[in-house]
Amino acid sequence: MSDPLLEIDSLSLGFRQGKTTRETLSRVCFQVRKGEIRCLVGESGCGKSVTGLSIPGLLPPQARLLGGRILFHGRDLTRLSEEELDAVRGKSIAMIFQDIMGSLNPVLTVGRQMTEGMRRHLGLTAREASERAVELMRKCGIPNPENTMKRFPHMLSGGQRQRVMIAMALSCSPELLIADEPTTALDVTVQLQILQLLTRLREESGMAILFITHDFGVVAEIADRVTVMYAGQCVEDAPKDVLLSAPAHPYTQALLRSVPDLRDDGKRTLYAIPGTVPQDWSRIPGCRFAPRCPYRRSACETAAVPMAAAAEGHCVRCLFPVPFGKEAAEG
Ligand SMILES: Nc1ncnc2c1ncn2[C@@H]1O[C@H](COP(=O)(O)OP(=O)(O)O)[C@@H](O)[C@H]1O
Ligand SMILES: [Mg+2]
Protein backbone atom coordinates (compact mmCIF):
# COMPACT_ATOMS: atom_id res chain seq x y z
CA MET A 1 0.00 0.00 0.00
CA SER A 2 1.10 3.54 -0.71
CA ASP A 3 2.32 5.86 2.03
CA PRO A 4 -0.46 7.82 3.68
CA LEU A 5 -1.12 11.32 2.35
CA LEU A 6 -2.20 12.43 5.82
CA GLU A 7 -1.21 10.78 9.07
CA ILE A 8 -2.64 11.98 12.35
CA ASP A 9 -0.13 10.51 14.75
CA SER A 10 -1.11 10.40 18.41
CA LEU A 11 -2.49 13.94 18.36
CA SER A 12 -3.32 15.41 21.77
CA LEU A 13 -4.69 18.90 22.00
CA GLY A 14 -6.40 21.08 24.56
CA PHE A 15 -7.97 24.47 25.11
CA ARG A 16 -6.66 26.95 27.64
CA GLN A 17 -9.17 27.84 30.32
CA GLY A 18 -7.73 30.40 32.67
CA LYS A 19 -4.47 28.91 33.94
CA THR A 20 -5.23 25.31 33.03
CA THR A 21 -5.49 23.50 29.71
CA ARG A 22 -8.36 21.09 29.30
CA GLU A 23 -7.47 18.13 27.10
CA THR A 24 -9.90 17.84 24.19
CA LEU A 25 -8.18 15.35 21.88
CA SER A 26 -6.33 12.39 23.39
CA ARG A 27 -3.83 10.60 21.16
CA VAL A 28 -6.00 10.67 18.06
CA CYS A 29 -4.61 8.45 15.29
CA PHE A 30 -5.77 7.77 11.75
CA GLN A 31 -4.49 7.97 8.19
CA VAL A 32 -5.92 9.12 4.89
CA ARG A 33 -4.40 7.71 1.71
CA LYS A 34 -4.36 9.33 -1.70
CA GLY A 35 -7.82 9.09 -3.25
CA GLU A 36 -9.35 7.66 -0.09
CA ILE A 37 -12.52 8.91 1.60
CA ARG A 38 -12.33 8.58 5.36
CA CYS A 39 -15.34 9.45 7.47
CA LEU A 40 -14.98 10.69 11.03
CA VAL A 41 -18.17 9.94 12.99
CA GLY A 42 -19.45 10.37 16.53
CA GLU A 43 -22.00 12.32 18.53
CA SER A 44 -21.88 16.07 18.77
CA GLY A 45 -19.09 17.31 21.02
CA CYS A 46 -16.76 14.31 20.57
CA GLY A 47 -13.95 16.29 18.91
CA LYS A 48 -14.56 15.80 15.19
CA SER A 49 -14.46 19.48 14.21
CA VAL A 50 -11.47 20.20 16.44
CA THR A 51 -9.64 17.34 14.70
CA GLY A 52 -10.58 18.68 11.26
CA LEU A 53 -9.61 22.26 12.06
CA SER A 54 -6.29 21.23 13.60
CA ILE A 55 -5.02 19.85 10.28
CA PRO A 56 -4.78 23.14 8.35
CA GLY A 57 -4.00 25.00 11.60
CA LEU A 58 -7.34 26.78 11.86
CA LEU A 59 -7.95 26.39 15.60
CA PRO A 60 -8.38 29.53 17.74
CA PRO A 61 -5.31 30.84 19.61
CA GLN A 62 -6.38 29.32 22.96
CA ALA A 63 -5.85 25.84 21.48
CA ARG A 64 -2.65 24.11 22.62
CA LEU A 65 -0.87 21.20 21.02
CA LEU A 66 -0.15 18.72 23.83
CA GLY A 67 1.58 16.05 21.75
CA GLY A 68 1.71 14.15 18.51
CA ARG A 69 2.13 15.08 14.87
CA ILE A 70 0.05 15.88 11.81
CA LEU A 71 2.02 14.51 8.87
CA PHE A 72 1.09 15.62 5.37
CA HIS A 73 3.35 13.99 2.78
CA GLY A 74 5.51 13.17 5.79
CA ARG A 75 5.90 16.85 6.76
CA ASP A 76 4.70 17.77 10.26
CA LEU A 77 2.14 20.57 9.83
CA THR A 78 2.20 21.37 13.56
CA ARG A 79 5.76 22.67 13.13
CA LEU A 80 5.12 24.99 10.21
CA SER A 81 5.08 28.77 10.49
CA GLU A 82 1.84 30.63 9.79
CA GLU A 83 3.29 31.66 6.44
CA GLU A 84 4.19 28.09 5.48
CA LEU A 85 0.75 26.89 6.57
CA ASP A 86 -0.89 29.57 4.50
CA ALA A 87 0.78 28.15 1.41
CA VAL A 88 -0.66 24.70 2.20
CA ARG A 89 -4.15 25.97 3.05
CA GLY A 90 -6.48 26.42 0.14
CA LYS A 91 -3.93 24.89 -2.20
CA SER A 92 -2.92 21.36 -1.12
CA ILE A 93 -5.52 21.17 1.65
CA ALA A 94 -8.97 22.70 1.25
CA MET A 95 -11.81 22.78 3.72
CA ILE A 96 -15.58 23.13 3.52
CA PHE A 97 -17.85 23.70 6.50
CA GLN A 98 -21.48 23.29 7.44
CA ASP A 99 -21.80 27.01 8.11
CA ILE A 100 -21.58 28.11 4.50
CA MET A 101 -22.82 31.65 5.04
CA GLY A 102 -20.11 32.12 7.66
CA SER A 103 -17.39 31.05 5.22
CA LEU A 104 -18.54 33.17 2.28
CA ASN A 105 -18.02 36.92 2.37
CA PRO A 106 -21.47 38.54 2.05
CA VAL A 107 -20.21 41.74 0.39
CA LEU A 108 -18.12 40.14 -2.36
CA THR A 109 -19.52 38.51 -5.48
CA VAL A 110 -19.21 34.76 -5.91
CA GLY A 111 -16.87 35.39 -8.85
CA ARG A 112 -14.51 37.55 -6.83
CA GLN A 113 -14.35 34.94 -4.05
CA MET A 114 -13.98 32.06 -6.49
CA THR A 115 -11.02 33.61 -8.30
CA GLU A 116 -9.07 35.06 -5.37
CA GLY A 117 -7.42 31.79 -4.26
CA MET A 118 -6.50 30.81 -7.81
CA ARG A 119 -4.84 34.14 -8.48
CA ARG A 120 -2.93 33.95 -5.22
CA HIS A 121 -1.96 30.27 -5.15
CA LEU A 122 -1.76 29.44 -8.85
CA GLY A 123 -0.67 32.85 -10.15
CA LEU A 124 -3.49 32.96 -12.71
CA THR A 125 -4.60 36.21 -14.31
CA ALA A 126 -8.10 37.49 -13.54
CA ARG A 127 -9.33 36.21 -16.86
CA GLU A 128 -7.75 32.74 -16.53
CA ALA A 129 -9.10 32.40 -12.98
CA SER A 130 -12.53 33.45 -14.15
CA GLU A 131 -12.58 30.86 -16.91
CA ARG A 132 -11.48 28.15 -14.54
CA ALA A 133 -14.10 29.22 -11.98
CA VAL A 134 -16.88 28.94 -14.55
CA GLU A 135 -15.65 25.51 -15.61
CA LEU A 136 -15.45 24.29 -12.00
CA MET A 137 -18.89 25.63 -11.14
CA ARG A 138 -20.35 23.86 -14.15
CA LYS A 139 -18.67 20.63 -13.00
CA CYS A 140 -20.24 21.15 -9.57
CA GLY A 141 -23.69 21.27 -11.11
CA ILE A 142 -24.28 25.01 -10.94
CA PRO A 143 -26.56 26.03 -13.80
CA ASN A 144 -25.56 29.20 -15.65
CA PRO A 145 -22.26 29.73 -13.84
CA GLU A 146 -21.42 32.95 -15.72
CA ASN A 147 -24.48 34.51 -14.16
CA THR A 148 -23.82 33.03 -10.69
CA MET A 149 -20.34 34.58 -10.75
CA LYS A 150 -21.92 38.04 -10.66
CA ARG A 151 -24.18 37.27 -7.71
CA PHE A 152 -23.74 37.75 -3.98
CA PRO A 153 -23.95 34.73 -1.65
CA HIS A 154 -27.37 35.64 -0.18
CA MET A 155 -28.88 35.56 -3.67
CA LEU A 156 -28.25 31.81 -3.97
CA SER A 157 -30.15 28.85 -2.50
CA GLY A 158 -28.50 26.77 0.23
CA GLY A 159 -27.72 23.99 -2.23
CA GLN A 160 -26.18 26.43 -4.73
CA ARG A 161 -24.08 28.07 -2.02
CA GLN A 162 -22.77 24.68 -0.93
CA ARG A 163 -21.85 23.89 -4.54
CA VAL A 164 -20.07 27.24 -4.79
CA MET A 165 -18.12 26.37 -1.62
CA ILE A 166 -17.16 23.01 -3.10
CA ALA A 167 -16.13 24.61 -6.41
CA MET A 168 -14.07 27.14 -4.45
CA ALA A 169 -12.45 24.41 -2.34
CA LEU A 170 -11.54 22.51 -5.51
CA SER A 171 -10.23 25.55 -7.36
CA CYS A 172 -6.54 24.89 -6.63
CA SER A 173 -6.89 21.10 -7.14
CA PRO A 174 -6.26 20.15 -3.49
CA GLU A 175 -4.84 16.76 -2.65
CA LEU A 176 -6.93 16.64 0.49
CA LEU A 177 -10.41 18.03 1.08
CA ILE A 178 -11.63 18.29 4.66
CA ALA A 179 -15.43 18.46 4.67
CA ASP A 180 -17.03 19.15 8.05
CA GLU A 181 -20.75 18.24 7.95
CA PRO A 182 -21.02 20.03 4.59
CA THR A 183 -24.43 18.60 3.74
CA THR A 184 -26.11 18.58 7.16
CA ALA A 185 -28.15 21.72 6.47
CA LEU A 186 -29.33 20.58 3.04
CA ASP A 187 -32.38 18.52 2.11
CA VAL A 188 -31.74 14.86 1.32
CA THR A 189 -31.97 15.14 -2.46
CA VAL A 190 -29.39 17.93 -2.64
CA GLN A 191 -27.30 16.09 -0.03
CA LEU A 192 -27.18 12.96 -2.19
CA GLN A 193 -26.24 15.00 -5.27
CA ILE A 194 -23.36 16.62 -3.38
CA LEU A 195 -22.11 13.28 -2.04
CA GLN A 196 -22.20 11.83 -5.55
CA LEU A 197 -20.38 14.89 -6.86
CA LEU A 198 -17.61 14.48 -4.26
CA THR A 199 -17.29 10.77 -5.03
CA ARG A 200 -17.02 11.53 -8.75
CA LEU A 201 -14.44 14.24 -8.18
CA ARG A 202 -12.24 11.96 -6.15
CA GLU A 203 -12.46 9.36 -8.91
CA GLU A 204 -11.50 11.91 -11.54
CA SER A 205 -8.74 13.68 -9.66
CA GLY A 206 -7.50 11.24 -7.00
CA MET A 207 -8.29 13.80 -4.32
CA ALA A 208 -8.55 12.36 -0.80
CA ILE A 209 -11.41 13.41 1.47
CA LEU A 210 -11.73 13.54 5.24
CA PHE A 211 -15.48 13.70 5.69
CA ILE A 212 -16.84 14.62 9.11
CA THR A 213 -20.42 13.60 9.81
CA HIS A 214 -22.73 12.25 12.50
CA ASP A 215 -24.95 10.63 9.86
CA PHE A 216 -24.50 6.94 9.05
CA GLY A 217 -26.52 7.41 5.86
CA VAL A 218 -23.70 9.66 4.66
CA VAL A 219 -21.09 7.12 5.80
CA ALA A 220 -22.84 4.35 3.88
CA GLU A 221 -22.93 6.52 0.76
CA ILE A 222 -19.43 7.91 0.66
CA ALA A 223 -16.85 6.30 2.97
CA ASP A 224 -14.03 3.90 2.21
CA ARG A 225 -12.85 3.79 5.82
CA VAL A 226 -14.37 5.08 9.03
CA THR A 227 -12.99 6.36 12.32
CA VAL A 228 -15.44 6.54 15.20
CA MET A 229 -14.64 9.17 17.83
CA TYR A 230 -15.94 9.30 21.37
CA ALA A 231 -15.00 11.88 24.00
CA GLY A 232 -11.84 13.02 22.25
CA GLN A 233 -10.53 9.56 21.39
CA CYS A 234 -10.69 7.24 18.40
CA VAL A 235 -12.63 4.18 19.55
CA GLU A 236 -12.97 2.21 16.33
CA ASP A 237 -11.32 2.23 12.91
CA ALA A 238 -12.47 -0.05 10.10
CA PRO A 239 -13.34 -0.30 6.42
CA LYS A 240 -16.90 0.96 5.87
CA ASP A 241 -18.49 -2.43 5.13
CA VAL A 242 -16.96 -3.95 8.26
CA LEU A 243 -17.96 -1.02 10.43
CA LEU A 244 -21.56 -1.08 9.22
CA SER A 245 -22.04 -4.86 9.37
CA ALA A 246 -19.78 -5.92 12.24
CA PRO A 247 -19.04 -2.96 14.51
CA ALA A 248 -17.04 -4.09 17.52
CA HIS A 249 -17.26 -1.13 19.91
CA PRO A 250 -20.44 -0.90 22.02
CA TYR A 251 -20.52 2.83 21.17
CA THR A 252 -20.49 2.18 17.41
CA GLN A 253 -23.12 -0.52 17.90
CA ALA A 254 -25.28 1.90 19.87
CA LEU A 255 -24.88 4.62 17.21
CA LEU A 256 -25.94 2.16 14.52
CA ARG A 257 -28.93 0.95 16.52
CA SER A 258 -30.10 4.53 16.89
CA VAL A 259 -30.25 5.06 13.10
CA PRO A 260 -33.83 4.97 11.77
CA ASP A 261 -34.28 2.18 9.24
CA LEU A 262 -36.65 2.99 6.39
CA ARG A 263 -37.37 -0.70 5.74
CA ASP A 264 -38.88 -1.51 9.13
CA ASP A 265 -42.17 0.40 8.73
CA GLY A 266 -41.41 2.35 11.89
CA LYS A 267 -42.38 -0.74 13.94
CA ARG A 268 -38.98 -1.05 15.53
CA THR A 269 -38.46 1.01 18.68
CA LEU A 270 -35.66 3.43 17.94
CA TYR A 271 -32.77 3.02 20.33
CA ALA A 272 -31.45 6.06 22.18
CA ILE A 273 -28.04 5.83 23.83
CA PRO A 274 -28.57 6.48 27.54
CA GLY A 275 -26.75 9.44 29.09
CA THR A 276 -24.66 12.06 27.32
CA VAL A 277 -21.06 12.59 26.23
CA PRO A 278 -19.13 13.37 29.45
CA GLN A 279 -17.94 16.95 29.88
CA ASP A 280 -14.46 16.71 31.36
CA TRP A 281 -13.43 13.45 29.80
CA SER A 282 -9.71 13.67 30.37
CA ARG A 283 -10.32 12.84 34.05
CA ILE A 284 -12.03 9.53 33.33
CA PRO A 285 -9.44 6.88 34.28
CA GLY A 286 -10.85 3.92 32.35
CA CYS A 287 -12.98 3.53 29.25
CA ARG A 288 -14.69 6.86 28.56
CA PHE A 289 -17.82 5.13 27.30
CA ALA A 290 -18.11 2.83 30.34
CA PRO A 291 -20.67 4.99 32.20
CA ARG A 292 -23.06 4.56 29.25
CA CYS A 293 -22.10 1.03 28.24
CA PRO A 294 -24.51 -1.86 28.84
CA TYR A 295 -21.62 -4.37 28.91
CA ARG A 296 -19.26 -2.60 31.30
CA ARG A 297 -17.37 -4.65 33.85
CA SER A 298 -15.32 -3.37 36.75
CA ALA A 299 -12.06 -3.64 34.75
CA CYS A 300 -13.44 -1.13 32.25
CA GLU A 301 -13.56 1.63 34.83
CA THR A 302 -10.09 1.39 36.33
CA ALA A 303 -7.41 1.65 33.64
CA ALA A 304 -7.15 3.33 30.24
CA VAL A 305 -8.11 1.04 27.38
CA PRO A 306 -5.72 0.88 24.40
CA MET A 307 -6.71 0.50 20.74
CA ALA A 308 -6.30 -3.16 19.75
CA ALA A 309 -6.68 -5.12 16.55
CA ALA A 310 -10.07 -6.83 16.19
CA ALA A 311 -9.18 -8.14 12.73
CA GLU A 312 -6.91 -7.17 9.84
CA GLY A 313 -7.41 -3.43 9.27
CA HIS A 314 -9.97 -3.18 12.08
CA CYS A 315 -9.06 -1.66 15.47
CA VAL A 316 -11.21 -1.16 18.54
CA ARG A 317 -10.76 0.42 21.97
CA CYS A 318 -12.72 -2.06 24.09
CA LEU A 319 -11.70 -4.71 26.62
CA PHE A 320 -14.76 -6.92 26.12
CA PRO A 321 -16.23 -6.43 22.64
CA VAL A 322 -19.53 -8.23 22.06
CA PRO A 323 -20.33 -9.36 18.49
CA PHE A 324 -22.97 -7.14 16.87
CA GLY A 325 -26.42 -8.70 16.78
CA LYS A 326 -25.66 -10.89 19.82
CA GLU A 327 -26.35 -8.09 22.30
CA ALA A 328 -29.97 -9.07 22.88
CA ALA A 329 -28.91 -12.54 24.03
CA GLU A 330 -26.15 -11.27 26.29
CA GLY A 331 -27.40 -7.90 27.39
N1 LIG B 1 -12.80 27.26 20.91
C1 LIG B 1 -12.96 26.34 21.86
N2 LIG B 1 -12.63 26.60 23.15
C2 LIG B 1 -12.79 25.67 24.11
N3 LIG B 1 -13.26 24.44 23.90
C3 LIG B 1 -13.62 24.11 22.64
C4 LIG B 1 -13.49 25.03 21.55
N4 LIG B 1 -13.90 24.42 20.41
C5 LIG B 1 -14.29 23.18 20.79
N5 LIG B 1 -14.11 22.99 22.11
C6 LIG B 1 -14.43 21.76 22.87
O1 LIG B 1 -13.97 20.66 22.14
C7 LIG B 1 -14.88 19.58 22.25
C8 LIG B 1 -15.12 18.98 20.90
O2 LIG B 1 -15.81 19.89 20.08
P1 LIG B 1 -16.05 19.64 18.52
O3 LIG B 1 -14.78 19.20 17.89
O4 LIG B 1 -16.69 20.86 18.01
O5 LIG B 1 -17.09 18.43 18.52
P2 LIG B 1 -17.87 17.78 17.29
O6 LIG B 1 -17.39 18.43 16.03
O7 LIG B 1 -17.54 16.32 17.35
O8 LIG B 1 -19.31 18.03 17.55
C9 LIG B 1 -16.13 20.10 22.91
O9 LIG B 1 -16.21 19.56 24.19
C10 LIG B 1 -15.93 21.59 22.97
O10 LIG B 1 -16.39 22.09 24.20
MG1 LIG C 1 -18.52 19.57 14.65
Quick structural gist:
The chain is 32% helix and 23% strand. It is α/β, with parallel strands linked by helices and 331 residues long.
CATH fold call: Rossmann fold
- Identify the CATH homologous superfamily: P-loop containing nucleotide triphosphate hydrolases
Low-pLDDT regions: none
Number of strands: 12
CATH architecture: 3-Layer(aba) Sandwich
User: What is the number of helices?
Assistant: 12
Strand order of the largest sheet: 6-7-8-3-9-10-12-11
The amount of beta strand, in percent, is 15-25%
Number of domains: 1
User: Roughly what percent helix?
Assistant: 25-40%
Could you state the order of secondary-structure elements as H and E?
EEEHEEHEHHHHHEHEHEEHHEEH
Radius of gyration: 21 Å
Overall 3D shape:
globular
Provide the list of bound ligands, each named once.
Answer: adenosine-5'-diphosphate, magnesium ion
Biggest sheet statistics: 8 strands, mixed
Q: Which structural category do the helix and sheet elements fall into?
A: alpha/beta
Estimate the mean pLDDT confidence. 91
Q: Quaternary state, please?
A: single chain
CATH class, please? Alpha Beta
Describe the structure.
The chain is built from twelve helices and twelve strands. It is an alpha/beta fold. Helix 4 (110-122) packs across helix 5. It has a single domain, classed as P-loop containing nucleotide triphosphate hydrolases (Rossmann fold, 3-Layer(aba) Sandwich), CATH 3.40.50.300. The chain has helices at 48-54, 82-88, 100-103, 110-122, 126-139, 145-149, 158-170, 188-205, 216-222, 240-245, 250-257, 327-330, and strands at 6-17, 20-32, 37-41, 63-72, 75-76, 93-96, 176-180, 208-212, 225-230, 233-239, 308-311, 314-316. Strand 7 (176-180), helix 8 (188-205) and strand 8 (208-212) form a beta-alpha-beta unit. An eight-stranded mixed beta sheet has the order 6-7-8-3-9-10-12-11, sandwiched between helices. A four-stranded antiparallel beta sheet has the order 2-1-4-5, covered by helices on one side.
